[in-house]
Design a protein that fits this description.
- It is a single chain.
- With 580 residues, the protein is an all-alpha fold.
- The chain has one domain: MetI-like fold.
- A hairpin with a 2-residue loop joins β1 and β2.
- The protein is globular, with a radius of gyration of 25 Å.
């Protein structure tokens, strides 16, 4: 209260009067706050189990549905950001924490959303009985699981690769651990974190249908939103409703890109580590509007000073995630590393033994072999799709990342394509497979990577945009040809970011197999053999033992692949391709 009173008195004494731009900015900000406050109030209306919330396909309801969906996604994004800044930092700074956090994230990013739904819906409904807040929290949590892992892995990788000269600057200025975290590590990681936030927001759109139209154990729960609208439109085979949903999504993505992400990306340009200033033309009409205001600029400056005061506070005792000294990690660090590997595999084998003992009483060995075969088939699809997408999107991502003007134009388009739910392509896929007698393997397999491929593109764009201009100028001065430039400068510069994108793309493909290996349009359903279709079918039937077996098999395969393939590549990226 004292801060606000002093600010108001200063404004009055200095005769700082608002202008037209102040009024316009206030109207926009106030409207956004009122809309989201009203949406939050709608989340707490009474609700009873077994009651189906009516979802109308009338396009007049789409603005209301869009507001509800965006509210859930932004709440999930805030939770993901908090998770990233705490857990991701802890893993980057503590070697012991890293050994457990990163494998757990690897497993969680591959656990299907149906697995999270089956465990969380009942829990949240019991926490908030008689209120819609229970299913709402379950939907927000599911969206959170589609956003948090990518952001945490990206931030973890960036914090571990902070250049040594920046660390030396922190020591020279005697920055505390708290100050070093905010002024060095978060500032250096901010451009890449924003791109990961955008792709995580898009990943939330991909799973919004499953999070708002919950169908678990033969019980349906519909939440007002674009996802449930799409689910009903698909069930009724309503082409016009699908078209209205696509147009609404395009408008919504354009709005939050212009009001939220574009100003943040423009502001984050000043945090890029460069010794030579580059000619970047990143602009935002929101920041230009704020720059013309009087009151907004004054209050913004006061808020900035308050944030600086918080950062400069000398805390008596810091949390361990800020104060632990950063260490470089090698994949095979002699005795201690072998001991950690032995403990990890002993734990995995113990879990496998317990699961085998438990499932032996509920499922047959024939079913177990069948599920293992389905898992290997899905793993082969994921590997092929990630390899093909890497060949396509790595060159494109580097080209976009090195050209900010093109990135500004491509960003909203890429966000829309990344946010485009594969469910909306089901009518075309099903009709094409039926009409032209296309092999379902060929028709449905690409749906697994439609949402996950953008992890590769956005991470590569973030990595390429962070390559210092002086590195590129040196390459030009030495007259490097295209291949040598790629091999010596571009590929090493983006390699840590590409590995992060490839890991999350693989995890996203595993998760997307639930909705990609079995598709429906009206009364027509087409499926291909795989672990995803098996989980989907068993979850709908309410067969808990078979669903748990398939989810466990998926998690086991992901852990083995990550441990034998992605983890060594991650270590290579951290230990060799660090900007120094």
């Amino acid at each position: 209260m004292n801060f606000l009173r002093n600010t108001v008195m200063t404004v009055y004494k200095n005769r700082i009067y608002p202008n037209f731009w102040d009024v316009l900015a206030f109207v926009i900000a106030f409207s956004v706050i009122v809309l989201f406050a009203w949406s939050a109030k709608q989340m707490t209306v009474p609700y009873q189990i077994g009651t189906v919330v009516p979802i109308s396909l009338d396009p007049h309801y789409l603005p209301f549905y869009a507001l509800r969906t965006v509210s859930r996604m932004l709440l999930a994004l805030l939770c993901s950001l908090f998770f990233t800044l705490t857990i991701g930092t802890w893993a980057a700074k503590s070697k012991r924490a890293e050994r457990f956090i990163i494998p757990i994230i690897d497993i969680l990013q591959s656990v299907p959303i149906l697995g999270f739904l089956a465990l969380t819906v009942v829990l949240f409904i019991k926490l908030f009985p008689g209120s819609l807040l229970g299913p709402e929290c379950a939907a927000i949590f599911v969206i959170f699981t589609s956003q948090a892992w990518n952001m945490a892995l990206g931030f973890y990788q960036t914090v571990r690769t902070v250049p040594g000269d920046l660390q030396e600057v922190a020591r020279m200025f005697h920055l505390s651990a708290w100050q070093r975290f905010w002024r060095i590590e978060v500032a250096y990681s901010l451009p890449g974190l924003l791109w990961n936030m955008m792709v995580s927001m898009s990943a939330g759109w991909f799973f919004v249908v499953a999070s708002e139209a919950i169908f678990v154990a033969q019980q349906e729960i519909l939440l007002p939103g674009i996802g449930s609208y799409i689910a009903i439109a698909i069930r009724q085979a309503n082409i016009s409703a699908i078209f209205y949903a696509i147009m609404t999504m395009f408008i919504v993505i354009l709005l939050y890109d212009q009001l939220f992400f574009r100003p943040l990306i423009t502001w984050a340009e000043k945090f890029k580590a460069e010794q030579i200033a580059s000619k970047r033309e990143v602009r935002s009409w929101v920041l230009n509007l704020l720059a013309r205001t009087r009151w907004m600029l004054y209050f913004g400056a006061r808020i900035g000073k308050a944030c600086d005061a918080i950062i400069n506070i000398q805390w008596p005792s810091l949390p361990i995630l800020f104060s632990v000294k950063r260490r470089r990690w090698h994949y095979r660090p002699q005795v201690s590393g072998y001991f950690g590997e032995i403990v990890f595999w002993l734990v995995v084998l113990s879990i496998i033994s317990f699961a085998a003992f438990y499932f032996s009483a509920h499922v047959s060995w024939h079913t177990l072999r069948h599920v293992l075969g389905l898992g290997l088939l899905t793993a082969l699809r994921v590997f092929i799709l990630v390899a093909l997408c890497s060949l396509i999107w790595v060159p494109i991502g580097v080209y976009i990342g090195l050209r900010p003007a093109i990135a500004n134009m491509v960003q909203p388009v890429a966000q829309f394509l990344a946010a485009f739910p594969a469910n909306l392509l089901y009518p075309l896929v099903v009709m094409a497979v039926v009409m032209f007698h296309v092999n379902p393997e060929v028709g449905l397999t690409p749906l697994m990577i439609l949402g996950a491929q953008w992890y590769i593109l956005f991470n590569v764009v973030a990595g390429a945009s962070l390559i210092p201009k002086d590195f590129l100028d040196v390459a030009d001065n030495f007259g490097m040809n295209s291949w040598l430039r790629w091999r010596r400068v571009l590929l090493p510069g983006i390699f840590p970011y590409y590995i992060t994108g490839a890991i999350t793309a693989a995890g996203g493909s595993w998760n997307a197999s639930i909705v990609a290996e079995v598709v429906s349009w009206g009364t027509t359903t087409i499926s291909i053999p795989g672990l995803g279709s098996y989980i989907s079918e068993q979850a709908i039937q309410g067969n808990f033992s078979h669903t748990a077996l398939a989810i466990g098999m998926m998690s086991l395969l992901v852990v083995i692949i990550n441990r034998l393939l992605w983890r060594p590549l991650y270590a290579l990226a951290v230990n060799r391709f660090v900007l120094e």
